[in-house]
Design brief:
2 copies of one chain form a homodimer. Chain A has 562 residues and is an alpha/beta fold. The first copy, chain A, contains 21 helices and 16 strands. In chain A, helix 5 links the parallel strand 3 and strand 4.
């Protein structure tokens, strides 16, 4: 179709899947008219739900069309989208299922039983129509009939035969992804030409040009104001009642909502845990309850982003694991999703291991162009939420903590935080090591410093708050480490694999700095925060003990005095 | 209930969620009678599908019961299980949905509209019954009625009120996960006592004791035979037609199936790509087509494992990302799933980035007790498949490659491979570096060695095939590196974060060995294998160039001669 429209040359069609081509094995944004990068199955309908909700929010009249395969709809995320679309009564969403009855290797789940699909969709609350997918006139008529005011999402179940019109292939397994060559290729092309003709008429006007919604036009980053008024933060500082970074995130998000109408917030039935409810209370129109369906939520965010919005998407850090493929595909499609995972690490305590984010750093680090932020107090949370809103190159992720910070607010309101930065929290002459911490472990590091100072003046350490884990501030870390005995101790509330310790190690690969790491060593259990930090060996005592061992390694004489 | 049965003391009930207790925030196997570790929502029904299919396979008459929440069933994986259970007509699966209408933070998707759920389940092909969830007699009667020969999975939709009988809480939001204290606690306990009474009678016989299926009793690892008869491998070696590791996996799996009846195989509509079809052809009863629904497939595997089977679960490496939360929960429940991900890395070529496994190493490394294997030829694939079958402590993962190995078979049939091992593929006096490769990059490393040898006798390198990435063979790597100029070059067809390079770096953290890493640096594209390996900088030329740079760093004199 794009070739007929003059957007792709015939030569380019023959370059399909070649290194130099904009046409890849599955659609990506190398081709300018791609609407969404797909290829991992089932993500399309959720993206469509996001686009349809964006249309409603922006009071725009366009319809969103999503093409699915009948093999693909076995994917659970499709059913999340089906439920949510029905819940939100999205009249402006039209799904088309190509029901050819064949998957890659077998017949599909319900074979060619198209009336069963109709019953299923209708029971969910969709308006469903069955058509002959090979009858162009019937298809056109059906598409026209979709523009009704029925407050239901619509689905066209198109009965088709795979390889229709090619007698040697039609309705048969074994041709999925197969390339026709030579005589067979010629036969196939001729059969298609005979059936479809060459007389289609298209003009440039037939190419839909999406416009950014009003919100984003008016409230882009140029008009952005600081989200952290000094009065507000001073009030917080004066309250003397520590809050958690998840609460600070909720406050910052609401503040951001005030200065930027393009911000929308999605949450998976945990708004009272992630504190996105603070945003909802002030901006109910821009808050979307996504229920317990994290996959659909993430891909909905892709749809909102595509229509010019700035989506913040929140759930427990652990539960983003459920949507990792959707996040991977969003990264592939260069969607600037802002993901916020609460309840990081063993520090959540009693809820137990299934609720602890212990691999989220690893999962977010390995995405192209991703940014990974992990604040430890109110001020840094505010500033990093602001930084995320302004990061448009890919996925950004904020890791928040369940329990309030013991030591209250760490930073003054005028401290600056930026993507790729870190903070030297404590520095001293003749430090023998630098402790690199983030989030909750910053406070453990500060306590460890006090423990060590009481034991010997020789056991002095520097402390870095590595609030930006990706990108990481290599230059500052190297500079501080070289002034601190060229010893680093990393400490993180996360498994060792793919976490802060490995990030530091990779950044410093070509230096002579020694790196020692503390991380959660095994499957945790329920318990109190302090018990679990001690069990994992990531509390102040564990840090202090490791520093003493390093001192012992470096100079056995120092140790003898203890 | 377990307390009434005498399996938990009243004191232990009061220890709920404490560090010393077997009762965690969500069920884990610390409590001996736990059937499945849950807490991430929606995995239960899939585990039940696996158990029900295991019953059918083992010709056992038990029924499997799964309790779900109506908030939970928004999760897509539940709908994958609903479709598959209907497809397999699992009469021995009974689901119960506690329909109380309330989620954690809001009303559930379809509120309290229980007849809508009934219609939906019936349209999928389930036998559905609505009951009053507070009427014990009606519940008992309904449970009895489930033991019918109707060839349908069954669902009991139990209409309930959250906090029923506690006038101050019932049917209200805001009590999710809240602990009652003092007077309110007393009032709540009294209300429950008055309603339920204390006269329940249970005996030890009421505790169901699962038995291992016949298959596992007869064909445990003790009776295991070598799956790789020498004749078979010699035939392979003589064929002189290289095959890929995914094909070798398919052959090995079929060979394993012959000697172990407990092996079952699950595949998500890509059996002709992963080559599990080789197993299916010989053992159709033990092969389960799971359609394009990876999440349900993984949790089904947990059910099979729980009933004594050895599940091998295969799809593209990239698509295991879709099921990462289910894999995380399987690891938490100490299920010995054998996962096999094909189409690793940019080496797949034309299909493009959405189909390339580029983060699977990171995703599998960060699971407690996981094992990560990555063979490069036929012999190592066979031996590692055998090793996986015998690994029962947790998740094991095998990474396979799409294209045949250029250099054919690398290892002789009598070579030994084991979890935690590596192979020194090439070693020489005065090597200036050791290249650590795995899978496809082993062959690039061999070519790099030849390129370097042609350029200068001083540029000699050792090569390690790091086929076991977790656990990793630290001792051998250190020993070879120390004999090779204390320089390591890692090269992997995977993103840098969380991959082979970081695994090596973490293992060697406390040595003076320098580690240089090559990995896929950015989002890839479609193209030919050789183009993509060159683009990513992980081919023989890239390795050779890096080694020359290291030589330059170490001794500028060597270089001057070039």
């Amino acid at each position: 179709v794009w070739s007929v429209l003059g957007k792709i040359s015939e030569q380019e069609l023959h370059n399909y899947r070649k290194f130099s081509s904009v046409l890849e094995g599955h659609p990506t944004f190398r081709f300018a008219y791609t609407e969404a990068a797909t290829g991992a199955l089932g993500v399309g309908l959720s993206i469509g739900v996001g686009e349809a909700l964006a249309a409603r929010l922006g009071k725009r009249s366009y319809y969103t069309y999503v093409l699915l395969g009948d093999g693909e709809i076995a994917e659970g995320c499709v059913w999340e989208a089906i439920q949510i679309a029905a819940h939100y009564q999205l009249h402006n969403l039209v799904a088309i299922v190509d029901c050819n009855g064949l998957g890659q290797s077998d017949e599909v789940l319900f074979d060619h039983d198209i009336t069963r699909y109709k019953k299923i969709f209708e029971s969910f609350g969709w308006h469903a129509v069955i058509v002959d997918g090979h009858n162009i006139e019937e298809l056109l008529h059906t598409f026209d009939s979709m523009h009704t005011s029925i407050e239901q999402p619509k689905i066209i179940l198109a009965k088709t035969v795979k390889g229709y019109g090619l007698d040697f292939a039609q309705g048969k397994l074994g041709f999925h992804g197969k390339v026709f060559q030579g005589e067979i290729y010629k036969k196939a092309i001729d059969a298609l030409r005979n059936r479809c003709g060459n007389d289609a008429q298209y003009t440039e006007n037939d190419v839909w040009k999406p416009k950014l919604p009003k919100a984003a036009e008016q409230y882009g980053t140029q008009n952005r104001k600081n989200i952290l008024p000094s009065k507000e933060i001073i009030t917080l500082l004066c309250e003397q009642k520590p809050i958690s970074t998840r609460q600070a995130f909720g406050q910052a998000l609401a503040a951001l909502g005030k200065v930027n109408n393009a911000v929308v917030v999605l949450d998976a039935d945990v708004k009272n845990s992630t504190y996105t409810e603070m945003f909802e209370q002030q901006f109910p129109d821009r808050f979307f309850q996504c229920f317990i369906a994290e996959q659909n939520m993430v891909s909905m965010g892709v749809g909102f982003h595509r229509r010019g919005y700035i989506p913040f998407i929140a759930t427990f850090a652990a539960f983003f694991s459920r949507a990792h493929d959707q996040i991977r595909m969003a990264a592939l499609g260069q969607s600037a999703l802002r993901l916020v995972g609460s309840h990081a690490g063993v520090a959540i305590g009693e809820d137990g291991p299934s609720q602890m984010g212990l691999e989220d750093i690893a999962l977010m680090r390995c995405l192209p162009k991703s940014v990974l932020l992990y604040p430890c107090d109110v001020v840094s949370t505010y500033k990093l939420v602001e930084a995320m809103a302004n990061y448009h190159e890919g996925i950004s992720y904020l890791r928040t903590t369940r329990l309030p910070m013991e030591s209250g607010v760490l930073y003054a309101e005028n401290e600056q935080f930026h993507i790729g930065g870190c903070k030297v929290v404590y520095q001293t002459e003749n430090a023998m090591a630098v402790i690199i911490a983030a989030g909750i472990t910053v406070f453990e590091a500060l306590k460890a410093k006090d423990i060590l100072q009481q034991q010997s003046p020789l056991l002095s350490v520097a402390i870095i708050d590595c609030y930006s884990i990706k990108p990481i501030d290599t230059a500052t870390i190297v500079a501080v480490a070289q002034k601190s005995g060229s010893n680093i101790v990393t400490v993180e509330d996360h498994y060792a694999e793919g976490g802060l310790g490995e990030a530091v190690r990779s950044a410093l690969a070509h230096t002579n700095i020694k790196i020692f790491s503390l991380a959660v060593p095994d499957l945790p259990r329920s318990g109190e925060k302090s018990e679990l930090l001690a069990w994992a060996g990531i509390d102040a005592d564990a840090i202090a003990n490791l520093v003493k061992k390093i001192a012992d390694l470096n100079n056995r004489k120092i140790i003898r005095g203890w």
